[in-house]
Design brief:
Maf protein, 32% helix, globular, alpha+beta, eight-stranded mixed sheet, 197 residues, binds inosine 5'-triphosphate
Length: 197
């Protein structure tokens, strides 16, 4: 079965392919459809934005579409940047400036006050069906400085105590065993066969 992922984020695209292709899905993303205009994310929740992306693109292409809206929620910042994670440090979108901004805002706060989690909401939509919505999270801490070149986004400053490393230091395989996106995909996997019937 072919699924189009409504994302232009190369990091997300790589993770979806690595998790879903071995299960037999053919995965395309909006990186393969450069003429499709950006969906403006006007929602105030992950679910609203994921629905906007999935339902808009599914109606446009008339095929099943999966969208991911995700972000980093930091305890000491009352859940910020949350749905504003992609452009936290303004336009143009820059992972390096986003990470620098988070580190500057947390300053010298000690380990106990650096708690955070990644959140991922996935919405699977089809023109003729009620959308399927699932979510996943991953808990960790904001590191004192960026470490590692793997992954994307906030991975180099997201320390996972169970791994003793940041997500920037672990392979895509390791990240895909524990991540917010992988946890959401496990829930989707449990419901997708029924949904596709
Ligand atoms: P699309 O809308 O095209 O999918 P986007 O990057 O704009 O791409 P979001 O609006 O969902 O997607 O923003 C998610 C941001 O949250 C992303 O740009 C990263 O900054 C951060 N993020 C989400 N998942 C992440 C992960 O697994 N590792 C690191 N950062 C992540």
């Amino acid at each position: 079965k072919k699924i189009i992922i409504a994302t232009k984020n190369q990091g997300k695209a790589n993770e979806f392919k690595q998790i879903l292709e071995p299960k037999g899905y053919i995965i395309e993303t909006l990186i393969d459809y450069p003429d499709i205009p950006d969906v403006v994310e006007t929602g105030f929740t992950f679910e609203e934005n994921a629905r906007l992306k999935a339902e808009t693109i599914s109606n446009l292409l008339q095929v099943p579409v999966l969208a991911d809206d995700s972000g980093l929620c930091i305890d000491a910042l009352d859940g910020s940047p949350g749905v504003f994670s992609a452009r936290f440090a303004g336009e143009p979108k820059s992972d390096a400036r986003n990470n620098a901004k988070v580190l500057a805002m947390l300053g010298e706060l000690n380990e106990l006050s650096r708690g955070a989690y990644f959140h991922c909401t996935l919405v699977l939509s089809s023109p003729k069906k009620e959308s399927l919505v699932v979510e996943g999270t991953l808990s960790g801490e904001i590191a004192k400085f960026p470490v590692g070149d793997y992954g994307f986004g906030y991975d180099p400053i997201f320390f996972v105590p169970e791994l003793g490393k940041t997500l920037g230091e672990v392979s895509e395989d390791t990240k895909n065993r524990i991540s917010h996106r992988a946890n959401a995909l496990k829930k989707l996997d449990a419901q997708i066969a029924e949904w596709f019937k």
